């Protein structure tokens, strides 16, 4: 239930709010063959496989066993850390999205110039939304430790690393010296 709430509030509802406020669809990924849109495909597949993991655990325990649960991580204390990470990720990501306001996008809109956000949580991390997403997947892994959820953490970490670098090139081209100064003063993650 936490996962569904996270996805709905952080991605669906925030997208609707930004679209209504700005008139721009913040979901930018399409289905072309370029690297940026391929990353969007990977994000969608990661959400699908995360949902499969949760459904198998919740409703199909015999099938869940095929995901190779990691027994030594199946401890209440570790699962509580996972739940705490989900909650922290949710709040962190939501705050970052609210602070981005109309500049928030899922992907890179090469045809539009948005405001460069450098205050609030963005004074601590240049990529707080992506950081929140990675922490979210780590939380899911700690709650449901298995080979698929571990693989999803690795896939998301690598995918986010590539996405961030694509965005850095775009932001440098779009905002020039202002972004370079920001990049020099604020760390990529935290």
From TrEMBL:
Q: List the molecular function annotations (GO) for this entry.
A: transferase activity
- Extract the signal peptide range: none
UniProtKB keywords: Membrane, Transmembrane, Transmembrane helix
InterPro entries found in the cross-reference section: Phopholipid_MeTrfase
A single GO cellular-component term on record? endomembrane system
User: From what superkingdom does this record's organism come?
Assistant: Bacteria
Q: How does it sit in the membrane?
A: Multi-pass membrane protein
Q: Name one Pfam family in it.
A: PEMT
Q: TM segments?
A: 38-60, 72-95, 134-158
Compartment list: Endomembrane system
- What is the designated name of this protein? Isoprenylcysteine carboxylmethyltransferase family protein
């Amino acid at each position: 239930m936490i996962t569904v709430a996270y996805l709905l509030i952080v991605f669906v509802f925030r997208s609707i709010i930004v679209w209504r406020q700005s008139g721009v669809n913040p979901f930018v990924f399409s289905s072309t063959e370029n690297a940026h849109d391929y990353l969007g495909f990977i994000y969608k597949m990661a959400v699908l496989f995360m949902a499969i993991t949760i459904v198998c655990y919740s409703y199909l325990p015999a099938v869940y066993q095929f995901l190779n649960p990691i027994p030594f991580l199946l401890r209440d204390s570790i699962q509580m850390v996972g739940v705490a990470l989900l909650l922290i990720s949710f709040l962190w990501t939501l705050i970052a999205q609210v602070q981005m306001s109309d500049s928030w996008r899922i992907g890179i809109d090469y045809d539009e110039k948005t405001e460069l956000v450098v205050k609030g949580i963005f004074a601590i991390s240049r990529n707080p939304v992506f950081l929140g997403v990675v922490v979210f997947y780590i939380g899911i892994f700690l709650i449901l430790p298995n080979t698929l959820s571990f693989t999803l953490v690795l896939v998301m970490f690598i995918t986010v690393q590539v996405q961030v670098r694509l965005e850095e090139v775009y932001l440098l081209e779009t905002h020039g010296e202002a972004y370079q100064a920001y990049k020099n003063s604020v760390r990529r993650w935290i």
